Amino acid sequence: MFADRAKIIIKSGKGGDGHVSFRREKYVPNGGPDGGDGGKGGDIIFQVDEGLNTLTDYRHKRKFAARPGEEGGKKKCHGKNGEDLILKVPEGTVIKDAESGKVIADMSGDNKRQVILQGGRGGLGNQHFATSTMQAPKYAQPGGEAIEIEVLLELKVIADVGLVGFPNVGKSTFLSRVTNARPKIANYHFTTLNPNLGVVDFEESNGFVIADIPGLIEGASEGVGLGHEFLRHIERTKVIIHMVDGASVEGRDPLEDILAINKELKAYDPHILDKPQVIAANKMDVCMEGQEEILDKLSSYFEPMGIRVFPISAVSGQGVQALLSHVSQLLKECPSEVTVYEPEFDPALRFFKDEPFTVEKDEEGIYVVEGPKIEKMLGYTNIDSEKGFLFFQRFMKEQGILEELERLGIEEGDTVRMYGLMFDYFK
User: Fold this and answer.
1) Per-residue model confidence as pLDDT tens digits over 115-143
2) pTM above 0.85, yes or no
């Protein structure tokens, strides 16, 4: 079954609540608070597994949750942290927010492991809230809430070369000849739904990965058939091989076929046509007398554009080596880095939206920011890390908190307090 797209629900672990308790020892009638902190909730982590090539594992199970942290205990005992949940995916998987369609993470290139949802922080036990005027606090901090979102997983195959063409032009035969792949080969128009990947072992260790993109049809860019399911795989390739039936066995016009596929590629993403292209005119071993004019027609149209045309036979191997040599040379001229999609969305932002907050200036001139969303954000975010502090600053701006502070007249060097944390304000 075609499994390069899946929609699942992921949920991080809730933080354990802080504990309320007091020392109870012989000869210590008024022991102080000794409630322990709650454990941190488990994270949701996505990790690349080189042994996977589809998202089949996520088609039959839709909900995935990390473990919550345990509550703190007596005698300042810290609750156990919740176990993280690691979700393994193939390299090339793009994780998107299902609601907005924005990219959360791209598991490609150097990004082999990423925390997508952080577990809630553990709540502080009552031992932390003792003061000179409140020596027996009977309250503790609740654990940070879990975060639950729906995400869309899309596998965009990472290959150096994309092999495109209408169904039944011989792509599978070609792939089986030049690589270690063994795709099913048959004379049918409803082609296999999984992109076939194979490695071309070339001289001087200049091998490359080639992907047979399943048969495209006109209207694919508009979602006709399974157009979008197939077209996404061509986005990461560096070189495109157009394979056509050079002998016109089924009466199709090879030139019209190439123009039709380029039209679909352009409609899906105009930048795809910026990639180098090569044309493989297949089935030339069965070319009838006089049909060489098809090859001349293709050459006269495309070669002035710098697109080479190679007559080949995937069955006999005729012309295949020359084609591969040209493709190998094109790859040497292409940038070496893999196309990686930049993050566009932080799941935590939706978790904090539409909750009230207050900004006030107290008698000491300190600006006090409070509200459920502030407490949740501070519990969810590790502001001691660079990434966490950047998120904290973005959160303050996007939620309108900075605007409200400026409206109240805050100046550089003024102090802002948020639930026990103190910050100096700088523009």
Assistant:
1) 999 898 898 898 888 877 777 788 888 88
2) no
Cα 4 to the chain's mean position, in Å?
13
- Residues 6 or more apart whose CB falls under 8 angstroms from that of 229 comprise 2, 4, 5, 193
Rounded CA-CA distance 311/248 in Å is 13
Q: What are phi and psi of 374, to 5 degrees?
A: -70, -45
**The pair of three-digit structure tokens given for residue 114, joined into one six-digit string:** 């990423």
234 vs 213: CA distance, rounded Å: 7
Compute the distance between CA of residue 294 and CA of residue 118 in angstroms, rounded to an integer: 59
205, two tokens: 């260790």
Pair of tokens at residue 294: 């098809």
Return the C-alpha torsion angle 399, 405, 408, 409, nearest 10. Answer: -150
Cα separation, 335 vs 424, in Å, equals 45
Q: What angle do CA 263, 268, 273 make, to 5 degrees?
A: 60
pLDDT in tens, 136-194: 788 888 888 899 999 999 888 777 888 888 877 778 788 888 776 554 433 333 344 55
CA distance 306 to 374: 58
Dist CA 1 CA 386 (whole Å): 42
Parallel, antiparallel, or unpaired: how do β-strands 44-48 and 113-117 relate?
antiparallel
Place of tokens 């089935």: 283
d(CA 307, CA 301): 9
